[in-house]
Amino acid sequence: MSLIETVKKQSAAGLSFARKLFGADVPVVPLVRLEGMIAAGTRSSALNLVRLERLLDRAFANTRAPAVALAINSPGGSPVQSRLIHDRIRALAEEKDKLVLVFCEDIAASGGYWIACAGDEIFADPSSIVGSIGVINAGFGVTEAMAKLGVERRVKTAGKSKVLSDPFADETEEQKARMHALLDSIHAQFIAHVQTRRGGKLDTDKELFDGSIFTGEEGVAVGLIDGLADARTELRKRFGDKTKIVPLSPSRSGLLGRFAGAVVDVLEDRLAWARFGL
Predict the structure, then answer these.
(1) Which of 92, 129, 132, 245 pairs as cysteine with 107 (C-beta 3.0–4.6 A)?
(2) pLDDT mean over 185-205
(3) Domain ranges (residues) in the chain
(4) Is residue 40 within 8 Å of 78, Cβ to Cβ?
């Protein structure tokens, strides 16, 4: 063996020892927690791309990580923000050549499931709720109450379709038709998204796109998810018992901002979660 070869061998051995000494040879997997309603804006608990972008960049920038894991616990929300978050995750996964593993907790429904489809593989607890591949628009009407109170509604518009839904006026047939058309369009986008991401895994004999929800066990059977597992167990099973899991969560706004929006946040969140009995 030449002197150069000897030096190279000793250097490699020294580097290997140093990596083991400082734990640099231990697999590291960022675990990004996505919990709450999906909505645009500055709500302290809302999931949206503005709030998550830096966090996702940080998770995928870890060169020691063989994968990035996502823990999702969301009843859904904005279809636009759901798509933006999903697309950012997939773009980073392709750019950094990372495997994406998704773990659904209590619920990954509607927009939450849209984001879950960013995973190369999706896991859940047997009792998790997944699916709800549908679109909803909810409102109210108080025309009779206004009449009893003697309140007159005065609205002026330029453009006959400017008002799509007005709780203070009777809903017209044209407004109903337009709202259904909008919901059907977004629903079709949702269906196409799931079919593209889940492909041949879906059970085509089952009705999966009518807004129904499924338990984790049922989700495996119909192809909405790939298996039943929690994040820690699956990651260590896959990458080794010494795998270091690094939890990452979105930052929240300051104390004053959280207090100001707390009541609204709680009410809106409870209404969203209550749709699924949670």
Answers:
(1) 129
(2) 94
(3) 25-134+200-274
(4) yes
Q: For 154, list phi and psi in degrees, rounded to 5.
A: -125, 105
Whether the Cβ atoms of residue 211 and residue 132 lie closer than 8 Å to each other: yes
CB neighbourhood size of 96 (10 A): 15
H-helix or E-strand containing 34?
strand 28-35
User: What does the pLDDT look like over 56-83, one tens digit per residue?
Assistant: 999 999 999 999 999 999 999 999 999 9
The CA distance from 72 to 84, in Å, is 16
pLDDT of residue 171: 72
213 phi, psi to nearest 5 deg? -110, 155
Q: d(Cα 275, Cα 164) in Å, to the nearest integer?
A: 24
Consecutive H or E run containing 228? strand 227-228
pTM, to two decimals: 0.81
- Tell me the C-alpha to C-alpha distance, in Å, between residue 103 and each of 54, 69, 91, 116: 21, 7, 19, 8
Calculate mean pLDDT across residues 106-134.
97
- Alpha helices for 30-136 (secondary structure H): 49-60, 79-96, 111-116
Homologous superfamily, domain 25-134+200-274: 2-enoyl-CoA Hydratase; Chain A, domain 1 (3.90.226.10)
What are the tens digits of pLDDT across the range 9-46? 554 444 344 345 445 678 999 999 999 999 998 666 78
Q: At what angle do helices 79-96 and 49-60 cross, to 10 degrees?
A: 20
Weakest-pLDDT range from 107-116, 156-165, 237-246? 156-165
| Alpha-carbon distances, residue 26 vs 10, 62, 243, 245 (angstroms) | 22, 13, 6, 10
